[in-house]
Amino acid sequence: MAVRTIFTIGDEVLRKHAKPVETIDKRIKTLLDDMAQTMYAADGAGLAAPQVGILRRVVTIDVGEGLIELINPQIISQEGSQVGPEGCLSIPGRRCTVERPMKVKVRAQGRDGRTFELDAEGFLAVAVCHELDHLDGILYVDKMIEDVTGKTEEAPKRGEDEE
């Protein structure tokens, strides 16, 4: 395992679409291991392969509930809404509020190649949506409501919006 370089805003790789993983081989498993180590070393909650310069649909997430590895993830359903501050390892030192779904269901493959579904709610739903956006060249600042970088007041609380 190795800590990889995290590309930052301005690097064109962050704006490209990642390609599906065709075969889960040793290289993809090494990528997953390296991404997890890189994410933890940077004190992040998630990391997408394009952030380390690899244009493949691979994501690692850990919001404090254990490591989640997603290969070829797709959101298959979403509901509700929440607004809250986000940061990104590829945009160091900046935080912005973003609207995301309160709940998402994702279908993906694990490192064993098996397809599974993940139900995510709250902060995990935010992390999933944030990382999957990276796979399509979208950064959270593209969806920003307000830049809250450096604000000392309390950030907006997450909660369901009325439909």
In short:
Helices cover 18% and strands 33% of the residues.
Question: Could you please describe the fold and organization of this structure?
Answer:
With 163 residues, the protein is of the alpha+beta class. Helices cover 18% and strands 33% of the residues. The chain contains 2 helices and 8 strands; from the N terminus they run αβββββββαβ. The strands form 2 sheets. Strands 1-2-3-6-7 form a 5-stranded antiparallel β-sheet. A 3-stranded antiparallel β-sheet has the order 4-5-8. The protein is globular. It starts with 25 loop residues before the first helix and ends in a 16-residue tail after the last strand. Mean pLDDT is 93; it is low at 153-163.
Q: Class by helix and strand content?
A: alpha+beta
Largest sheet: 5 strands, antiparallel
Note the run of SSEs as H and E: HEEEEEEEHE
Please estimate the helix content.
Answer: 10-25%
Please state how the strands of the largest beta sheet are arranged side by side.
Answer: 1-2-3-6-7
Average pLDDT rating: 93
Radius of gyration: 15 Å
Which word captures the global form? globular
